[in-house]
Structure formats: C-alpha cells, structure tokens
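Quick one:
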Amino acid sequence: MAGNHVQIGKTMTWTNSTGADVLSGSPVPVGVLVGVALVDIPDGAIGELATEEVWEFPKIAGEILQGTVVYLDGDGAITVLAPDNVRAGIAFASAADADETVRVKLNA
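Output:
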C-alpha cells in the first residue's frame, strides 16, 4: 500500500463547536460534506461522523423521487432545495409527500 494512505475514509473525526450537544444519528454539515454522528457528541467534544452509506433522515413536506439530489437544511431536514443548504447526497428511495423521512446515500 502507498505510504501516504491515511485511512479508508468512511468516517471522520470531528470537534463539535456548534454550541449544542449532537445526538447519535444526527446529520452534521461539515463544509460541503454531511456526516452522521455515530455517538452522542457533547458540545466541545470530539466524536466520529460517518461520511458514507445510506441513512434515514427527516424530510420537509413534498415528494422526493429516487435518484434526486437532496440537501440538508438548517433544521437538519432533507429538502430538494439547494439555496443556503448543504448537499447531503442522493435519495436512495422515493418518499411520498406524507412520508416523514427519506433514505439518503450520503455524499453521493
């Protein structure tokens, strides 16, 4: 293996400087990436975020079709609206207007 390989990259170490505790399973914007807290991460603490795979998140009202690019809004919900939101990935499955959640292939 090349000597400059650091890690596989399915997780990243992150310092919580949000001013609030982050609960396990919560989506976390990190620059242009979205991670998922793998454990509860108190404010000021260091924890691991998943940066790959498929996760289920709350979504705003409206239908989201499988394969659609989706974004994380400031409230931690998934939307199809890009402005002022961080790209979260691709809808892994369709979600109807009435559905409260959508499955997202993270950072895809």
